[in-house]
Design goal:
Length: 256
């Protein structure tokens, strides 16, 4: 997505970034923890008007549509990602509308019951840009509607030492000291062609304040959970590093 002033954070229109990002979805951690935790807090969407912000190629958009969301709309700033989503819709029509738009843009008040976003807010490099994102979300959600997101854990810098996440398919590198806007560099390990994604640190109170100022209430943060093993058996301590030092959290709030 594009940050303020036109400088780029991670441009999913560039090169093979979109295609590489798609490959990361095969990592077990993405389904066993990330998708499981995210969708658990999104909850029942049957018959609800749902907007998937920063929808990418539409994975969660399609899951929510199949779960009964109607209408279901996907929004992303990347024309390339929306193109991938529309191709999926052509192959398997579900009645989803995909639009290219900036999540920070303010539009006339819309009436979505639920807005969701998988990995959007951590691209904000300062409180001002985070505020713009939250205002962009607020104008799309009706009063009493909910916003649910999974995002990079703002508490990463408080862990002391970030554990080795390589077994889950990625690495995280932090700056030597913490400050608002400090980089959080995530590298997806894709063989000879890794994907580097830049995220940025803002404290939890910055998120709570931005949502409140944009017109949301009941802000809450949830730690990720592990889905039951697909097959009976003891997985030992394999997932402990992720669960004890979660690199992602789920946030939710309610529109005033």
């Amino acid at each position: 997505m594009t940050t303020m002033g036109g400088s780029m954070v991670t441009d999913y229109n560039e090169g093979l970034i979109a295609e590489k990002y798609e490959k990361t979805k095969t990592f077990p951690v993405r389904s066993r923890i990330e998708a499981y935790s995210f969708l658990k807090h999104v909850g029942d969407v049957k018959g609800k008007k749902v907007l998937d912000v920063a929808c990418g190629s539409g994975d969660f958009t399609r899951i929510l549509r199949r779960a009964g969301a109607a209408p279901m709309v996907g929004l992303d700033i990347s024309e390339k990602m929306i193109g991938l989503a529309r191709k999926q819709e052509e192959r398997e029509p579900l009645g989803i509308e995909y639009i290219v738009a900036d999540a920070r843009s303010v539009v006339p008040q819309q009436d979505f019951d639920v807005a969701v976003a998988a990995y959007l807010l951590m691209y904000a490099r300062d409180r001002d840009e985070l505020g713009r994102m939250c205002r962009g979300l607020a104008c799309r959600v009706k009063s009493g509607g909910r916003f649910v997101t999974i995002t990079t854990n703002p508490d990463l810098y408080s862990f002391g030492q970030v554990p080795n996440y390589r077994k889950y398919g990625f690495e995280i590198e932090l700056a030597e000291s913490v400050f608002e806007g400090a980089p959080i560099q995530l590298t997806a390990l894709l063989g000879d062609s890794p994907l580097v994604i830049d995220n940025y640190y803002l404290p939890i109170d910055a998120y709570e304040s931005a949502f409140r100022d944009a017109g949301f209430r009941d802000f809450a943060v949830h730690m990720p959970e592990l889905s039951p093993a697909p097959e009976a058996g003891d997985e030992g301590d394999y997932w402990d590093d992720y669960l004890n030092y979660p690199p992602a959290v789920v946030m939710e709030c309610v529109r005033e």
